[in-house]
Each structure stands twice: as structure tokens, then as C-alpha cells.
Amino acid sequence: MGGFRKNELAEKRGYTYRLTRRQLLVATSAAALAGCAPGAVTPSASSSVAPGKELKIGLLLPFTGVYAELGNSMRRATELYLKQNDQKLANRHVTPVYADDANVTATGVAATQKFIDQDQVDVMMGVVPTPLAYGIRNAVHAAKLIFIDTNAGGNALTRDTTNCTPSCKSPYIFRASFSSYQISYPIGDYLSAKGTKEWFLAYANYGFGTESAADFTTGITKNGGAVTGKVAPPLSNPDFAPFVTQIKNQPTKNVYSFFSGADAIGFIKSWNSLGLPAAGYKMYGAGFLTEQDVLREVKDLANGAITSLFWAVELENAENKKFVADFQKSYPLLPDVFAVQQYDGMRALDEALKALGGDTSDKDKVVKALEDVTFKSPRGDFTFDKNTHNPIQDIYIREVKTQNGQTVNTISDKIAKVTDPGK
Amino acid sequence: MRPLLRWALVAAAAVALVTFPYWSAPWVSRFATTLVRDALILAMFALSLDLLVGRAGMPSLGHAAFFGAGAYAAGITGQRLGTDQLPVTLGAAALVGALLAVVIGVLVVRSEGIFFLMLTLALAQIVFAIAFQWTALTGGSNGLSGVGRPVLAGIDFSAPDLMYVLVAVTFVLAALVIWGLARSPYGRALSGVRENERRMRALGYDTARLRLSAFVIAGTIAGIAGALSAYSTRFVSAQDAGLANSVRAFVTVLVGGAGTLGGPIVGSALVSLIERVVPSLLPTDLRISEAILGLVFIGFVLFARQGMVGLGRSAYYRVQHR
Amino acid sequence: MSPELVFQQALNGLSFGALLFILASGLSLVFGMMDVVNLAHGAFYMLGAYVALSVVQSTGSFWLAMLAAPLALGLLGFVLEPLLLRRLRGRHLDQVLLTIGVSLVIVDVIGQVWGREVRSLSAPAGLDGSVTLIGGVYPVYRLFVMAFGVALAAAMAVVYRRTRVGMLIRAGVQDAEMLGALGVNTNRLFASTFATGAALAGLAGVIAAPVFGVQPGMDTDPGLLYSLVVVVVGGLGTLSGAVAGSVLVGPADTFGKVLFQDVALAVIFAIVALVLLLKPTGLLGRIRIAR
What we know:
The structure holds 3 protein chains of 3 kinds.
Chain A: H1 8-12, H2 21-34, E1 55-61, H3 68-84, E2 88-89, E3 92-100, H4 105-119, E4 123-126, H5 130-142, E5 146-149, E6 173-175, H6 185-193, E7 198-203, H7 207-221, E8 226-231, H8 241-248, E9 254-258, H9 261-273, E10 282-286, H10 292-298, E11 306-309, H11 318-330, H12 337-356, H13 363-372, E12 374-377, E13 380-384, E14 391-403, E15 406-418
Parallel strand pairs in A: 1-3, 1-4, 4-5, 5-6, 7-8, 7-9, 9-10, 10-11
Antiparallel strand pairs in A: 2-3, 11-14, 12-13, 13-14, 14-15
Helix pairs in contact in A: 3-12, 4-5, 6-7, 9-10, 12-13
Chain B: H1 3-18, H2 20-23, H3 30-55, H4 64-80, H5 86-108, H6 113-133, H7 135-138, E1 144-145, E2 151-152, E3 155-156, H8 160-183, H9 185-195, H10 197-202, H11 207-233, E4 235-236, H12 243-256, H13 262-281, H14 289-303, H15 307-320
Antiparallel strand pairs in B: 1-4, 2-3
Helix pairs in contact in B: 3-8, 3-11, 3-12, 3-13, 4-5, 4-6, 4-11, 5-11, 8-9, 8-11, 9-11, 12-13, 12-15, 13-14, 13-15
Chain C: H1 3-34, H2 41-59, H3 62-85, H4 92-114, E1 130-133, E2 136-139, H5 140-162, H6 164-174, H7 176-181, H8 186-212, H9 219-234, H10 239-259, H11 264-278
Antiparallel strand pairs in C: 1-2
């Protein structure tokens, strides 16, 4: 090791090695720390912005942890879109850079910083959990990085808020998924207008659940409805029997629920095994309660549940039929709503780039191009609200039915062109 | 080696560390600065835990409670009091970390071994639950966003390079404090408590007070580390106070080498490497960075119990006594 | 709360407690015998559930899964003990740390092999209906779980008190070194105990699956967290401790979550903290003789 002075004690004793313990320690620590910066962190060649050059898209998705299924689904959608378009968006060849946030906010924030500083991506997409979206909002805005959120539905991400708390919109942030308002308020408005005024709420006690319950409540109170009570299990609750038992022991039969994934499965199974359908209780909810991942496991136990979402596998339009068929051909799986969100995000970017001739050098022009994008998506007509950058989309009222041996969400009604209020 | 030379080397290393973004710029991207910054925060957090685990023999699995509390304190005082001043927000973080450590410490200090482990875990989970549910104060599950810029003596430290310097300087100061404590009679008394508490009591030491004071010092430093994390990411998540963060620090201490100064530092370098760099080197289908960490951990426990520092030492001795 | 509601929630609490007992019994056994808190217990539980998934998928039989999962996990435990833990015999803290590493590896391997989707298991045919009780309809499976829990506890008590193996285990708990000096193959005894603990975790994975589900993260929540809570609250290392812990924690968690909804997350840990502060070695725990 060059640069170290003579070790006198060693010399006196006749040893030939010159390092002392402290030198070794310091050298090891420094080497270990500096070792964090091998080729893996040298900056990549700056991405050119001229048309025809490579377009780097950073995709921050969960590939491990409770949301891994969503991340994998969204990656499949990305790869399907690229495959269908020759690995290109407009005239730019695409290099996707994937990062796993593992549902740990700190990991996602660091990964975003890596996208900005190290990979120097042109566009960022993904982000499943809302806290992560809120956590990276400022970094993305400061770096003027175009970020297309393809899941996180926290209302604040596309709204004007006081003190930007818990978050607020940014010109560079677009959302290709939904705001939780859009899947909660319209169904509340719709059902209470049809005469159902008394409601009981059951929702997972975290940001998404409380927000959905609150927006639903606004929807029903608008038409003179009222909430008579609630149960709010913690997120990732193992045993739903106690909560469903509470529901069974109160008179209000119409229950609006917000659960997703494993919680939705547990809730629906308990709902059935405790005999709620026979006792006249009716299950309503935001769409995630009965999405593909849930229906695959509970099957006909969810029959009769009425939920609202901007898409369903059964949606009868040409785009959706083609999308579902193509997805099934590439993977032996039905697509889910998360795949649709990601697919639409890719499409929106594609359309914007086409309008720009592939030129991403002027961020403000890219923003404008994205704002002007409009196309037919598997969910129907897709366009961004110019004010909020949230999608303007139709919300479908769906009912779970078993047909042809499959349990699916069938469309029973539609609320057209729902926008998010923006504040 | 002459003490003066040794000190000069350490000082040089510290200066190199603090000025890292500036001299490394030609070779690495700015992300390296972010990576090292986060590793230093973890190192500081692990150093404070090592005071408990390595020196005082108190295996705490709830140390993230102080980290999280400090992070929230820094963010919330900045927002509520409308101030950016570093002394105020960092002071609040240290104070909250200390106070919480007193409260929890008083409750846990008489337990030992697995019961101490479980009690610290349970109490930390209560802190996590409060952070997760008390939306009005902490932002709840959505986290606390918009943490202010740290300003000291008119300098805004939120620029990436300056933020790194702030973290690195604080880290060096904390390491000095812990090093000083370890070498002092106090530190030796702590080691005594770890080795044989009964004998220490027989010798007249108030072991409960010793352990409590260690707990509070560790909690304060962890709180400061948490504040630094809040300043660097401008965001506080409830997970910062969660079990996974406590386990992470624990693994870092053990892999690096408990009871040494270099251990938590080296451990945090390794853990950061495995967590942040390895996943991007693996093919996207192969998500096994946790398994790699687990195997590394198993390897250390089986073959290198004193951690990397221990490995380094035995390598040195083997070489020395050729 | 009306009396019917209290009764129903009590049933919920007790059936939840029964599941917790089946889950925690293995952890308690291993600690009682070997002084090791097996922090991979949750990972074993998770692996048992995924093995059950595969078995049910290929054979359609839940009962076969109930045999296969404990067998598979027992085998794994029988291999792991001599491979890893035996090298650290006597170094209890190190053995605990080792199990942390083991759990990290097992969980990632499960994700790679079985995927990371959210899955579930249905109760077996015959047990998937509901019966009418006071206050309404109640799922048969939860009654089965309660009966199974009681039967398991009784069986374990019989083995422990009235069989040679049980005697060896009790002796080993008292003084393993002496037992070895008396000519008993303690290596085989420890390996078998660890294997049994793992098998019990695997069994819990199958039985709890229709209620708790099968998904990423289940190794910690509910797996390890609830196991630790039960054994620490009840008193580490004894069968009666595990029973006492489950009987307390099950209903307390159930009622606590429903009555104090906003702090539901904290309820279970508040229970732990409270018990440990009042009785530091758990409800039925004894002060262990230092070795």
C-alpha cells in the first residue's frame, strides 16, 4: 500500500509488513466506502436528445414485497408495448431501466436520485405506493424530470394544496392511472342519487383507504346520504372475522369497502363465511376490491359486489379486446388494471413523442405535447386534464358475476368523463 | 506508529471523507455522493446502536424508533415553527431522541437478553404505529413531505454537495464522541456491565443508571442521524421508525463488527453496497438481494463473528506474525 | 356491545388464539429445548403455506398438504440444525443471529420459486361451511381450528409428560450437558427438536392459510411477530406458556382491534409491553438457570 510511512515498531521487531492496525482499519473503511463507486456509479454517457438516439426510461416498480405482483404486471405491460412497437417510441429506441423500490420509501427515493444523477433518464414512470410518489415529487420537480405516475392514486399529487402538503401537482408530473377521488366519489354520488342513503364504511386504515372513504362520503352526503358507522382494520390485517362480525351486528346493510390485494381477499372470504350475503348485506367498493388478483383467489365468493373503476377485463371496446388478446398471447395471463395503467402511460408518451418528432430536448415542449395527447385506450378515450395532468376518464359501475366459468367484473353502467376537481 | 502520525492519518481520512464530492467529481457521478451520504447516515445510526449492542451488551431491536422520532422532530419543528435554522431543527431532533430514549429506557433498562429484545421491539412498534396513524402530526401513512432546508450561519445546506458535507461533518463528530466515550472510564464501565453485571454492581456501580445513560446517548445520536436523513431526502416516512429499519441497523453492526469503531462504518458500506448497488447489477428477474444479505450474514456469524473488522484484524495479525 | 356480539367476538378471539398457538408452539419448543429463539420461524411458517399451495394445486387434497408441509419443513429443519446451528452450540445469541440470515434467504427463495403474487387456500371440503350458533352463522373451519389447537396442545402435553422422548426433552431443558454425559445422543435430540419446531411451523402454515392467506410479507406479519408476541407474553420455553400466551393474546388482540380502532396497530405491542413490564419473564415464565 503506497503512501504509508514506516512502521517503526514493526521495524524494531524485524517484521517486514508496514501497516498498523489503524492504517488497516482506515484503509479498509475507505476502500469499502470508495468501493461503492466502481463502474456501477460512473456516469453513463449523457443521453443524446437528437431524434433517433436512445431514449432512457426509468421505471420505479416494486418487484419484491407485498406489491410485487403489481410491479411484475406493469413490467409485462411495458415489455408488451415495446415489443409491439419494435422497442421504439416514435423514432427513438427505448432502453428501460428498472429499479425495485420493494415498498420501502427510502429505497424508492434513492432509486429516483439514481435515475436523475446516474442513469440520467429522459422520462420516469411507475411508482405504486402513494407515499413514495409524495416522497419523490419535489426531487422530480426540481430536476424537471418528466414523470408519468402509472399507479399511485393519492389525490394530492395532481392538485393544488396549501403548503404542498401532503404533496401537490407539478407541470412535469403526469398521471396515467387515476386519482382516488375518481374511483370513490362518483360511485357515492351515483348510488345515493339512486336512493341508497344509509351507508356503513369498511376500509383499510391507511392513506388510500381513508381518502377513498372520505371521497365516497362526500359523494353520498351531496344527495342527502349519511354514514352510520365504520370499521377500519389496519393495513395487512391477518384476521378479518372480528371486523366483519361488527358489520353483521349493526343494521345498515349497504357497506362501502376499500381493500385491495390480500386484505380484499381476507375481507371477502370472511364476509361469506360469516353469512353476510344471506343476511342481506350488500358489498360495494372501489374497484381494487374486486380486481383480477382478488377474483382469481375468491372467485364466486365476490358475486354481487358492485365496484367502480375506469376499466374491467370485460370492457367491450376494440382497443381492450385487442389488448387483452395480445397480453394473453405474450403471457399466459389475463391483464389487470395495473397493466392497463402502465400500457396507457407508454402510449401517452409514444403519442407525445410522435408529435414532437422524437425531440425531448425542450422539457416544456414535452409537457405541452403530453397535455395535448388523446387516444383510444383499453379503458376508452384517454386524455390528460390540462390543469391537473390527471386522466379524464369514464368510470364504470361494475358488478361481479360468474359467466362462462370465469368470475369477472361486468359493466352495468358508466359515468362519463370524470375529472378530478384539482383542489 | 507514533500517535501523532496516527492522528494525522485519521484526520486526513476524515478530511478526505468530508470533501469526497469535490475530489471524486472527475470519476464518479453525483449519485456516488448520494450513496456515500446515505451510507454515512446509516453508519451514524449503526454507531449509536453499537454503543448498546456492542459495548453495553443491550441487544435492541427498536432503535429505529429514535431515528424516526428525530427525523419527524426535525421536519415538524421546521414546518410548525416556520424556521429553517439548523440549530433549532437539529436541536429538536436531538432533544426528542433523548426524551424518547429516557421514556423507553426507563421501561426497558431492567430487562435482559431476549426479553430486552422483545420489549424494545414492542415499544418501537408502538412508536411506529403512532407515526403511521397520527396523520395530523406526522402525515400518517403518506409520510411527512416538504421538510425544510437546513440553514446554518446563513448558508443553505440543501444543495447536494453541501448536504453531503453537513452529513459527513456530523458523522465525524459523532464518531469522535463515541470513540471518546469508548475510551473513557464510562465506556469501560459499560463494557464491564456487558461482561458481568453482577460483579459491576458488587463493585458499587449503579448498573441501571449506566445502561439508561447509554440508552439515552444512543437514542440522541440516532435522533440526529434521523434528522440528517430527513434533510437529505426532504421527506420522512413512517417506515423510518419501523422494524425493518431497526433490523437493518442491527445487521450492519454485526456484519461490520460489534464493539469496534470501524465496525459499524465498514458494515454500513457493505450493507449499502448490497442494498443499493447489487440489485442493479442483477438481471431483473433475479430479485435475491435479501438472500445475498442473508447469506453474507450467515457467513459472518459462522466464520467471522467479529465482523469485517474482526476479519481485518486477524488478517493483520496473520500477516504480522509471519 | 350486545351479549351475542361479545359471544361471537369471543369465538373469533379464541379461534384466532388457537391459530396463534399452533403457530407459536414450534418456536416455544425450540427455545425451551435449545435456548434458541428461531427467528426463521416465520419463514418456516411461510414455506409451509407455499408447499401446501403446491400440494393442493397438484393433488387437490388439503389433508395431504397437512401431511406434506410439516414433513417437508421437518426435513429442512433436520438438515439445517447440524449444518448451521450445531457449529454454534453454546453460543445462543449467535444462533439467533444465524436464524435471521436463514429467514432472509428462505423468503427470497420462496419469491423466486413460487412467485410473489397474493395467493390463498380454501378450507377443505367438509369444513368450508357454516353452522348456526348464537348470534348467527359461524364458519365451521374456525371451530375446527379451535378443536385442532386443543388437540395439539393435549398431544404435546402427553408426549412431554408421558413418553420417553418427552422425558428426554424435559431433561434436556434442565441440563443438556448432563444428559449428554448420561449417554444420550444430544446431537440427534437437538436436531429432532429443531425439526419438530420447523414441522410445527409448517403445519401452522397450512392450517392458518384459509384464514391468514398466503402472500409476500407473511413471514413477518403475522408469522414471526405474532409467534414472538405469544411466547414472550405467555412465558418462553414452556408448553403452558404458549397456551397461556395464545389464550390471552388471541381475544385481547381481537377485542382491542375492534374497540380501539385508531390504535389497532399498536394494540398487540401495547399488550406485550404491558405484560413484560409487569412480569418480565412472561405470564408463566420461570427464571432460567444460567448455564
